[in-house]
Design brief:
The complex is a heterodimer. Chain A is mainly alpha-helical. Chain A has a domain of 155 residues: MetI-like (MetI-like fold, Orthogonal Bundle). Chain A is built from 12 helices and 2 strands; from the N terminus they run H-E-E-H-H-H-H-H-H-H-H-H-H-H. The longest helix of chain A has 31 residues. Chain B is mostly helical. Chain B is globular. The two termini of chain B are 33 Å apart. Classes of the chains: A mainly alpha, B mainly alpha. At the A-B interface, helix 1, helix 3, helix 4, helix 5 and helix 6 of A face helix 1, helix 3, helix 4, helix 5 and helix 6 of B.
Chain lengths: 258, 265
């Protein structure tokens, strides 16, 4: 009885939620093609491509490609580092494992401003201010923290046993990683890479403070919001599409047994 | 390979060290001075902005936690794929986009104002940060619900059924069985939300008011004028943000740190 009532209320919430999302996406699309849309009218007074032209004039394509590149590199580098660290950490002693986890996860709890401001002055000193590598470096602690959270608990007993069997058969650590660990963690790794991409893709605070001149989508979008609503809608759609595509690869975890 | 785990910590520790150094060595001369700290501490807006930052973080985290518990309760008996499909959309939306979406819905010329025509409260630009809190609440409620769903075990349902069989009302079951079972992941997720809200700039910049501002907003503004002196003030500001963040994280996570929680799921 309770279960049925809860399922029904859950379904209602899901429908309302999806309707809200669909509504706001539709609103954004209309906004993107509205050349004139004065309140309180429900529909635009004039349609056109003004917003698209403004967005393209403000190098939307360049910012899009840059953001894509930075997020992909940060997700891949973070994924490799987090997986490597976790591979060793799960087999280390309890203290070493805890220390590794704390080192990896704590950056998620720290304010982005302090990391970005500190890294910006260091980057200026070594002449890398505003470079892509600096932007990736400032995203990395946050990307790795969330990737570690996804990877936590994925090394189950079966996987560890399989790794042990491979080691007993004389397979080296690198081949073991490639042929046993990575195939065994495929789904979680894809989820970690997707989440890492999302974390980097949406970074605004750290990118702004570490590289004022960087050309990423969030940095292009913010100044447009008040002055150019149609162009801002175009850029918002450009930010939403890859983010929503990436969620398709994130799979629901199965229910844990008691 | 375990040393790889230290990469983010080294980057973060180096950044904090450099922020501390910059706050006491403005300019290129390299001489040590507390000028930036004096400027920052002497500004009457600093205490107000710090208080506002804490208010935003705590209110956003608590609203998101309440929303997350409601979503979790509604979605927990649905098929996992459907529940996560619903939750992943707001989680995937970048923060800057979330702020734009709030403006599109609730702003002065947003959808709600156009639908209702008049008498609609505009939370965007509110001096109480209502727009900021609403944005964090709808976006992070989904994150908190997802964390609670991941931690959900089958025996919670069994315990709830047993409690009902023993004569407890639905609300009693909820307060004495369900909530204690999800308390630990709820506290962890709420702390993560508060910690993020303290140091983030995009949502306050877009849906916040002109005054008061959050500490990250004033840090970003400090570097807009005199770059060298501004950077030192911004560094001092960011270090205060770090201290506030650590204090708030410890306060929110106190139940986990001070006693062994009886209710772990």
């Amino acid at each position: 009885m309770i279960a049925r009532e809860n399922t029904r209320s859950g379904r209602s919430i899901a429908i309302v939620w999806l309707a809200l999302v669909a509504g706001v996406v539709l609103w954004l699309v209309v906004r993107a093609f509205a050349d004139a849309w004065r309140a309180p009218a429900m529909l635009p007074q004039a349609y056109g491509l003004y917003g698209w032209n403004v967005a393209l004039r403000n190098s939307l394509q360049h910012a899009f490609v840059q953001s894509l590149l930075i997020a992909t590199i940060a997700a891949l580098v973070g994924g490799v580092l987090a997986t490597s660290a976790m591979t060793v950490a799960v087999r280390a002693g309890r203290r070493a494992r805890r220390l590794a986890l704390v080192l990896l996860v704590v950056p998620a709890l720290l304010p982005g401003t302090v990391v970005a401001i500190g890294m910006a002055t260091f980057a200026t000193r070594i002449g890398l201010q505003g470079s892509m590598s600096t932007v990736v470096a400032v995203h990395l602690p946050f990307v790795m923290a969330w990737q570690t959270i996804v990877l936590l608990g994925t090394w189950d007993r079966t996987l560890r046993e399989r790794e042990d069997v491979a080691a007993t058969l004389g397979v080296g650590p690198v081949m073991r990683l490639v042929h046993v660990t990575i195939p065994g963690l495929r789904l979680q790794l894809v989820a970690a890479l997707a989440l890492g991409f999302l974390v980097s893709w949406g970074q605004y605070t750290t990118t702004l403070l570490v590289a004022t001149g960087a050309d990423t989508l969030p940095l292009r979008l913010v100044p447009m919001v008040q002055s150019q609503p149609a162009a801002a809608a175009v850029m918002t759609i450009a930010m939403l599409v890859p983010a929503l595509l990436v969620t398709l690869v994130l799979r629901a975890p199965t229910r844990r047994p008691s | 390979m375990l040393a790889v785990a230290a990469v983010p910590a080294v980057l973060v520790a180096g950044a904090i060290f450099d922020a501390a150094r910059t706050s006491v060595t403005p300019g290129i001369s390299g001489s040590v001075t507390l000028e930036a700290w004096r400027t920052f501490a002497g500004d009457p807006a600093t205490v107000r902005d710090a208080g506002f930052t804490v208010w935003i973080a705590v209110a956003s985290a608590l609203c998101a936690a309440a929303g997350g518990v409601v979503l979790f309760s509604a979605l927990r008996r649905m098929p996992r794929r459907v529940a996560f499909a619903v939750l992943l959309i707001p989680i995937a939306v970048p923060y800057v986009t979330a702020a734009v979406l709030t403006m599109q819905w609730l702003g002065a010329d947003g959808l709600l104002t156009r639908l209702v025509q008049h008498g609609v409260y505009d939370p965007v630009g509110s001096s109480f940060g209502i727009g900021i809190i609403i944005t964090y609440a709808w976006k992070e409620a989904a994150f908190i619900a997802a964390i609670l769903l991941v931690g959900l075990t089958r025996d919670l349902e069994d315990r709830e059924t047993i409690s009902r069989t023993l004569g407890l009302s639905r609300s009693q079951v909820y307060w004495h069985v369900t909530l204690p079972s999800i308390a630990r992941p709820l506290i962890v997720a709420t702390t993560l939300v508060a910690a993020f809200a303290i140091g983030a700039l995009e949502i306050p910049a877009l849906v916040g008011g002109i005054s008061p501002q959050t500490l990250p907003q004033t840090a970003a503004a400090a570097t807009a004028g005199d770059v060298l002196a501004g950077q030192s003030v911004a560094a001092a500001n960011s270090l205060l943000t770090l201290v506030v963040s650590i204090a708030l994280t410890l306060a929110l996570a106190a139940p986990l740190l001070t006693r062994r929680m009886r209710w772990s799921s």
